[in-house]
């Protein structure tokens, strides 16, 4: 595939390829010159692992979270990074990017448990699910994301975190240290978290870096969605930690300054004799460079991905009304109702109302776990002069138990 070949060359060719193809993407060099610090010593065996890989830095002006996450998945699936004749030590790519306000949950997490969907909707913060594991994070323009793409053999999450710490010290005079969970912290407060994905041949390690995020948004969004009942999930739960913005420790902290510092540290660990110390600005929506990437983005934006990948869970509640009590028991998996039971007690017209709620329960099975499904199950045909008010009150109360269709967008 010529396009994939061009993409593979872009990871290697740097400035020369961009010029040769008349590439519209920007190319610039870092402020200071870089020399390779890991060189082969005399007497070493001809072992590729002792030589540094070739490396290139990608930046982007794109702040769409689904486009940027799609690029990670595309590179993971398509870009060869392992050793070959031209590059016996393999290749490394560092992608520096930031997003519009978004909460990103891990691959195996439950959104209700990890974030407040209603508060996110009020604040204009969208929801995304990434393909790597780990915990939930908040992104906005005050957060820098760093993705290290390598072959599986060269994957080194501790080394990447140490690289970022060295960059903060060199570029901003901030001393950050790795804690026991491999997160970067300054004076005990977390400034960076990370997650990774390992394949048979390719790996990536992505890290957040809190430069100057909106802390009010962060704390408001990273709370469980308020529900009236109890939700138990088999999903991975995030570990909460006190955080701090790096800007509070140094006025030198800006997005460009930290990008430069991390890029320089990255290239100092790479073989730059082929391409030179350069960084290339890319567009993650460019189908000519990343053929098929639109499909990756569409999947990440879909309900089936954001909520359909939710691990199995159970929801129970006792909803009390002036006319009686309705016990609620739902089970969900892959964003669908798998079981539903609504049981009414101590109500006038109890038998008739129970028959109606049984119909609702049966109608919910295998439907999306959303308010739209609840409203559809409580169709107008179920209403009667005796119970219409009870039915409608029950329907509205159940909205708090499901993925609100508005917040799922």
Question: Structural class, judged by helices and strands?
Answer: alpha+beta
Largest sheet: 7 strands, mixed
In angstroms, what separates the terminal alpha carbons? 35 Å
Number of helices: 12
Subunit arrangement of the protein: single chain
Average the pLDDT over all residues and give the rounded result.
Answer: 84
The shape, in one word, is: elongated
Count the strands?
Answer: 17
User: Helix and strand string, N-terminal first?
Assistant: HEEHEEHHEEEHEEEEEHEHEHHEEEHHH
Low-confidence stretches: 12-49, 405-409
β-sheet strand percentage: 15-25%
Q: Could you give a short description of this structure?
A:
The protein has twelve helices and 17 strands. It has helices at residues 2-20, 65-78, 111-114, 117-123, 157-172, 215-221, 255-268, 293-301, 303-306, 350-364, 371-377, 388-398; strands at residues 27-29, 54-59, 91-97, 102-105, 126-129, 137-139, 143-151, 177-178, 184-186, 189-192, 194-198, 202-210, 230-233, 278-281, 313-321, 324-333, 336-345.
